[in-house]
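Budget justification aside, the reviewers requested a transparent look at the raw inputs and outputs of the sequence design task funded under Objective 1. We therefore reproduce one unedited record. The lines immediately below are the structure tokens for a 181-residue chain.
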């Protein structure tokens, strides 16, 4: 009888474990799965790459800056030889971002120059990540994830004005930007 009871307990644990796993693809999983594949470029940048003079920031800007931990960037470059792969990968990303857990903040662009969308993951005053997704029918697409802790959209927008004064270490970003040239 104890063997049967143990078997039942193990079976319940196994079933609970299987059902607790999220079967939906996530943006994190997509990054990990594609960062080393051909046609993709992946760049991880710590927040301190901005080299902001924290003494020149307002209290709100400083709080926003300190809430950012890092940026993950993933891009797919479209060429004349990978249109089918591009279409497949673009649809995968769109499907992931259509998940209701990603709340849309803004959308823009056009069919000629390209389109973009900004989404967030988290609660209103406790954003875990900002997602910037842009695509162009002749260049490819890029996803930028701004990861942090307790990020606030309004404070982050206020921080953007301070970025004009930033001494950005563009060696890390230039590779990403050259990818689309």
């Amino acid at each position: 009888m104890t063997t049967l009871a143990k078997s039942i307990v193990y079976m319940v644990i196994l079933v609970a474990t299987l059902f607790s796993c999220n079967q939906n693809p996530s943006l994190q999983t997509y990054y990990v799965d594609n960062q080393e594949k051909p046609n993709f470029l992946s760049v991880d940048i710590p927040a301190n790459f901005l080299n902001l003079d924290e003494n020149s920031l307002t209290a709100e800007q400083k709080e926003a800056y300190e809430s950012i931990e890092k940026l993950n960037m993933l891009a797919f470059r479209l060429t004349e030889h990978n249109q089918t792969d591009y279409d497949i990968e673009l649809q995968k990303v769109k499907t992931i971002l259509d998940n209701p857990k990603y709340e849309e903040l803004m959308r823009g662009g056009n069919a000629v120059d390209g389109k973009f969308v900004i989404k967030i993951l988290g609660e209103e005053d406790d954003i875990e990540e900002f997602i910037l997704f842009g695509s162009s029918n002749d260049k490819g697409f890029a996803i930028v994830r701004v990861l942090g802790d307790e990020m606030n959209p309004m404070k982050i927008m206020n921080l953007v004005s301070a970025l004009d004064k930033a001494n950005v270490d563009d060696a890390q970003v230039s590779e990403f930007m050259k990818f689309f040239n």
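Residues 14-20 have pLDDT under 50 and may be disordered. The CA atoms of residues 61 and 159 lie 5 Å apart. Computational costs for records of this kind are itemized in the attached budget.
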